[in-house]
Amino acid sequence: MELQAKEIEALAEKLNLSKDEMLRDSLKVFLEKKLREIKTEIFKIRMKYGVSSVEEFEGRYKKGEIEEKDTWQDLQKLDHLEFKKDELEKALGEL
User: Fold this and answer.
1) Which residues, other chains included, contact 9 with Cβ-Cβ below 8 Å and sequence gap of 6+?
2) SS3 readout for 18-64
3) Pairwise CA distance, residues 85 & 32, whole Å
4) How far apart are the first and last CA of the chain?
């Protein structure tokens, strides 16, 4: 669904909000939803390997406490998810 500027303005007026306020609040809700999804994925990977951070995962990986086979993908995914989490939290802090 593609909203046009006129439709956004009409909806904002109908809700007695400024267009900017409505867009900012909508963006905040969207970013918070994405952040929850990412935190859920992070939690799943951490629980799967019993680690609390990428650094701990990597340390246990290097010590041989976590087998290399099929785990490196989860390590990379966790690292990427933590980066995305940080970026989303930064964006939310700027709103």
Assistant:
1) 19
2) CHHHHHHHHHHHHHHHHHHHHHHHHHHHHHHHCCCCHHHHHHHHHCC
3) 10
4) 25
Alpha-carbon separation of residue 9 from 15, 20, 30, 41 (angstroms): 10, 9, 19, 36
Type and span of the H or E element at 9: helix 5-14
CA atoms within 13 A on the CB side of 4: 3
Q: Give how far Cα 95 sits from Cα of 15, 24, 32, 81, Å.
A: 21, 7, 12, 21
Amino acid at 21: E
pLDDT tens figures, 19-66: 888 889 889 999 999 999 999 999 999 999 999 999 999 899 889 888
Tokens of residue 7, six digits: 């439709």
How does DSSP classify residue 81?
Answer: H
Question: What does the pLDDT read at residue 1?
Answer: 58
